[in-house]
Design brief:
With 278 residues, the protein is of the alpha/beta class. The protein has a domain of 193 residues: Alpha-Beta Horseshoe (pyruvate-formate lyase- activating enzyme), CATH 3.80.30.10. Helices cover 30% and strands 25% of the residues. The strands form three sheets. The chain has a nine-stranded mixed β-sheet. Strands 3-4 form a two-stranded antiparallel sheet. A hairpin with a 6-residue loop joins strand 1 and strand 2. The longest helix has 13 residues. It starts with a strand and ends with a strand. About 5% of the residues have low confidence.
């Protein structure tokens, strides 16, 4: 079982999980327990039973690496390189991509060892690899991932040490160290990783003035290495999943006005910013 990968969903033809058309693989299990998580079925490291509208099912299935690869490679025609250039905000061309594969979660990098055979095959076939990560994983996992991943979506949530531990069960020092490793990485040609920062704006958790100021201060440290900032306004897409698992449903209440204020506070960084409403 140690070589198998626990996955809750494989979603094809995704348009918002990286450049071009993507196949997104959602891995089960997360080191954090964010109360606003939109994928609550991926918090637990175990296969879970659910009941939705009277229909029972399970979240999670074990895949052999080769089995996962066969599914991913069915969409290979959508990953091929095209003529359109995709650029970062500095104007540097980092690829001519029409798509690729994105690994999400939960926290996909907790299973990075099991994913290595998949990564190696994708790289051998010239397929672009992206991950969506909170970075709350062992430092070894980040070091291993940096050998393969082209594009990182990185969450930036609660930066206060005690609140991070209390609310999310997270060690902020681990996050900061991993963030430093990511931004300091260079390949043999001196090129950086492509990084987009995603900031979930959640009422009573991440929206306070003190947390917004801490986020801005941290972003300023890496301002020359960030492609884009995405401010994610809280949403209710996960409500059915919470109900299906008999988990409590929470509502937070972030206004459009606050989203605009937050965007305005970050604009002096001169990084492209998008407000994302789902």
């Amino acid at each position: 079982m140690e070589n198998r990968i626990l996955i809750s969903n494989i979603q094809r033809f995704c348009l918002h999980d990286g450049p071009g058309i993507r196949t997104t693989v959602f891995l089960k299990g997360c080191s954090l327990h964010c109360p606003w998580c939109s994928n609550p079925e991926n918090i637990s490291f175990s296969i879970q039973k659910y009941c939705k509208d009277g229909v029972e099912g399970i979240y999670g299935k074990w895949y052999e690496p080769q089995e996962l690869l066969e599914i991913i490679l069915k969409d290979r025609p959508f990953y091929e390189k095209k003529d359109e250039n995709w650029t970062i905000h500095t104007g540097e061309i980092i690829g001519t991509l029409s798509g690729g594969v994105t690994f999400s979660g939960g926290e996909c990098l907790l299973q990075v060892k099991q994913l290595v055979p998949v990564f190696e095959c994708l790289k051998a076939n010239g397929i672009h690899i992206a991950v969506e990560t909170c970075l709350f994983v062992p430092r070894f996992n980040i070091s291993l991932a940096l050998n393969y991943i082209d594009f990182f979506y990185v969450d930036m949530k609660i930066l206060d040490v005690e609140k991070c531990k209390e609310v999310e069960n997270g060690d902020i020092s681990l996050y900061l160290n991993n963030l430093e490793s990511l931004f300091n990485w260079r390949d043999k040609h001196g090129r950086e990783k492509a990084v987009v920062i995603r900031i979930p704006v959640i009422g009573k958790y991440t929206d306070s003035e003190s947390n917004r100021n801490a986020v801005k201060k941290l972003l300023k440290k890496y301002v020359d290495s960030i492609i884009k900032i995405e401010l994610i306004q809280e949403h209710s897409l996960g409500l059915d999943k919470y109900r299906s698992l008999n988990m409590p449903v929470r509502y937070y209440g972030v206004t459009d006005n606050l989203m605009s204020i937050y965007k305005g506070e970050l604009e002096s960084l001169n990084i492209p910013i998008e407000i994302c409403k789902i």
